Amino acid sequence: MSAALQVTAFGLALLSTLFLLLATCTDCWMVNADDSLEVSHKCRGLWRECVTNMQDGVRTCDQYDSILADHPVKIVVTRTLMITADLLAGLALATLVLGLDCITFLKEDPSVKLKMCYGAGVLLGVGSILGLVGSVWYAVDVYVERAMLVSHNIFLGVHYDFGWSCWLGMAGSTGCFVASVLLTCCFY
Questions:
Q1: Which residues of the chain have a pLDDT value below 50?
Q2: Contact indicator for 132, 170 with CB cutoff of 8 Å
Q3: What is the pTM of this model?
Q4: CATH architecture for residues 3-27+72-186
Q5: What angle do CA 70, 72, 76 make, to 5 degrees?
Q6: What is Dmax (Cα atoms) for the chain?
Q7: What parts of the sequence cross the membrane (predicted)?
C-alpha cells in the first residue's frame, strides 16, 4: 500500500510541477475575450505579450522591457510567487525521488526515507499555496479590471479574460496540494 501511495504521490507531484513550470513560462495568462470579427488573438503573459494573426497563423511577441522595469503589481507578484512555487516543487520532487522505497539510496535507514517523503510533502504544500495564491491573484485582478471597465461603460477596443496559462497554474498548484496531502497525512 505505501509503495502504491508513494508512486501515486510522485506521479501527481511530477505532473503538477510540470504544469507549474509551463504556467510560469507560457504567455496566455490573459487572452482577449472579444470574439466579434477578431482577426487576431492577443495573449498577455508574465514575460511578454503576443498577438497571433488568425488568418495566416503568424505569431509576433513583444518582450517586456526589463525584468527590473516598473510593471503592474499583478505581474511582479505573480512572477515572484510562481517562481518560488516552481523552485519549491522542484526541490520537493528531488527530495521525494530520494525518499521513494524503490530507490536504493539510504535503503538501510527507512526512517530517514520516511522523513524525506514527509519533507517533500511539506515543501509541495508550501509551493502549492504560493502557486495558487499567484494564479488566483492574477485571475482576480484581471476580473476586477474588466468589471471596473464594464461598470464605467469604458471600451478600450479589447477586453481580456484569464487564459489557459492561469488555469494551468491553478491546476498545477492544486495537484501539488493533493500530492502534499498524500505525503503528509495519508503516508506519514
A1: 1
A2: yes
A3: 0.86
A4: Up-down Bundle (1.20)
A5: 80
A6: 69
A7: 118-140, 162-187
